Amino acid sequence: MTRPVGFAVLRVGRASFLLHRRAALVAVLLGAALALAAVAYLCVGESFVGPAEVVRVLWGQPSPDAFVVGTLRMPRLAVGLLAGAAFGLAGSFVQTVARNPLASPDVIGVTQGAGAATVAAMTFGVAAYDTLPYISIVGGLAAAALVYVFAWRRGLHASRFVLIGIGISVALGSLTQLFLTKGDFLVAQQAKVWLTGSLNGRGYDHAAPLASILLVLTPALLWAARAQRSVSFDDDTATALGVRLGRVRLGLIVLGVVLASVATAAAGPVDFVALLAPQIARRLSRTAQIPLLGSALTGALIVTVADLLARKLFSPIELPVGVFTAVVGAPYLMWLIVRTRSRSGGPA
Amino acid sequence: MTGNRLRAEGLVLTYEDRTVVDGLDLEIPDGQVTVIIGPNACGKSTLLRALGRLLKPRRGSVLLDGTELARIPTKRVAQEIGLLPQTPVPPEGITVSELVTRGRQPHHKWWQQWTEADEKAVTEAMDRTETGDLAERPVDELSGGQRQRAWIAMALAQDTDLLLLDEPTTYLDIAHQVEVLDLVRQLNRERGRTVVVVLHDLNQAARYADHLIAMKAGRIVAQGAPGDVITGDLVQEVFGLASVVVPDPVTGGPLVVPGAPGSTDRSARIGRHG
Questions:
Q1: Total domain count for chain A?
Q2: Which structural domain, as residue segments, surrounds residue A280?
Q3: Which among A10, A130, A265, B11 is least surrounded, fewest beta carbons within 10 Å?
Q4: d(CA A79, CA B204)
């Protein structure tokens, strides 16, 4: 045996990297699928633009469709891609730390916290528009801290963590409703659409903070890719292998909460993407932990395709993208809960 | 005695408010197999966890080469001390090959994930544990004996001078128990590794230990060579069990045969301890 089964070794001088072959292949295929979906997204709309013309616009060549493709559809696509990727990553971090596929930021109240904070800021007009992403982060972190405080009983038990998270998320949902009824009617209308997770009317000013935060976090993401692997054992084994569990967990959780909150600020709490993407990517890649790149690509693909359908399927009515992700996500969530219960309750 | 690498001084170990080990001094002899025995809940696994810095002492300290374990970066500790918990949980779906590779983690830098040293250690660990044939199999699907061999291979790949094993034979049948313990001793004899094993079975402990530590209620009752430590009185004191100690017909070491001398009434004996 010269290297671990299923891995390729990349060598550059004295540096060496282990590459999971199947995960790499899946990432390439997901990337290709995403590129196709993105082009399709730009083609389809009130008026159809041919793929060749879309590619011309993408290359920056003059085109009669430059306005429709470049100005109307591109920014919205950018928000979808970035938010989807951020949700995928966020789900991956939270699920990894909780060791539970149910524990995703949209189930345990993080996106609801981000949502409540943002709606409060919108309806009461206390914050300038461009500070909303940061208010969203504060809301998400506060919700996560709340879950943590309630779930902590000399250790963090995974199922208690999830149950308390669900409770907190419901409570935050009610709080959001309260803000909506108290606030200005027009703003409340806007906030309501945003709350279902909608890319309608989203533009570069939504994409820009998301892109810059993802860019700033890139070194942290590289760290996280390795950290995810090291926390995939039980606590004792991981510690015996030299992992500083407390720090690694905290780092991953904070990263996950920040990403979910920023994505929520940009696209609204698009449900179930953070829940679905990591598990789909993992099943495709057959890795021993959730593959990060795969999760990000899957998240982006889900949001892009869902928004494509949301725009076109019932046109001229444009549905919020969150409606479509929920159509797929809700049955999956129910299946997960049923499976978890039958596993822990009945005979194996 | 200050030459040994791993020591404990005035160790007080607690779980929440319950004191499990109270003021224990201990020295693990280098290059030997040390076996810790004692009844359930005597603190032997707790002690092992503390020796492997999985449990922070309430008071006192565990010292590695004279430095408090808590002051050494955990990754550095992992290069010197390997520890296999009683029931380690593998990442879901991981193959034996990848599991063993994870043992190299403490030696990795982020830009050096597969060096010649890694390759050598992993190959050797798999050869020794005869897990080469299982390389592509998921750990979840292995039998108890195979799984335990895979875990030990991971601990071996970590390539540490000190190896701590918490009841490595618990879920194995008798043949696999002997196989695992033979392997442990072989590692010690051929590579001079210091091994500390927590065991349930008195006779296995007597057979495989160079140095035996008998614990009861969080303190050390006796320690030394098995032939000196294991007596009928000690078994009575530590386990509350009447027994006869006879020479092991295979090794000549002590062999504990439960029961009062001359007594053939099994029900009476069982009744007394039930």
A1: 1
A2: 80-345
A3: A130
A4: 65
Q: Give A-chain residues touching B103 at CB under 8 angstroms.
A: 241
Does A29 map to a domain? no
Give residues 49 to 78 of B whose Cβ lies within 8 Å of A: 49, 52-54, 74-78
Q: Is the dihedral of CA A61, A62, A66, A71 positive or negative?
A: positive
Q: What is the 3-state secondary structure (H, E, C) of A70-87?
A: HHHHHHHHHHHHHHHHHH
Q: With an 8 Å Cβ cutoff, are B82 and A240 in contact?
A: yes
Residue B56 located in a structural domain: yes
The reply to whether residue B111 touches residue A17, judged by beta carbons under 8 angstroms, is yes
| A289 within 8 A of A226, measured Cβ to Cβ | no
Q: Which of B51, B89, B107 to mutate to test the interface with A (most CBs of A within 10 A)?
A: B89
Cα–Cα distance for residue pair A305/A294, rounded to 1 Å:
16
Give the Cα separation of B203 and B16 in Å (integer). Answer: 33
As given in the structure block, the two tokens for residue B131 are 């897990």
Q: Is A6 part of a structural domain of the chain? A: no
Is position B238 within any domain? Answer: no
User: Residue B253 falls within a domain, yes or no?
Assistant: no
Rounded to the nearest 10 degrees, how much is the dihedral formed by the CA atoms of A97, A98, A102, A104? -50
Cβ-proximal residues to A92 (8 Å cutoff; 6+ apart), any chain = A228, A256, A277, A278, A281, A290, A292, A295
Task: Decide if B251 is inside a domain.
Answer: no
CATH number of the CATH domain containing A322: 1.10.3470.10
What is the domain count for chain B?
1
- The whole domain housing B123 covers 6-225
Q: Closest approach of chain B CAs to the CA of A94, in angstroms?
A: 16
Q: Is position A30 within any domain?
A: no
Decide if A199 is inside a domain.
yes
Q: Do B114 and A233 touch (CB under 8 A)?
A: no
Give the pair of three-digit tokens for residue A263.
């994505």
**Residue A232 to residue B106, Cβ atoms within 8 A:** no
Residues 118-147 of B with CB under 8 A from A: 119, 122-123, 126, 132, 135-136
Of A154, A233, A242, the CB nearest to B74: A242
List the CATH number of the domain containing B155. 3.40.50.300
**Chain A interface includes B115 (CB < 8 A):** yes
Helix (H) / strand (E) containing B187 = helix B174-191
**Cis preceding linkage at A316, omega within 30:** yes
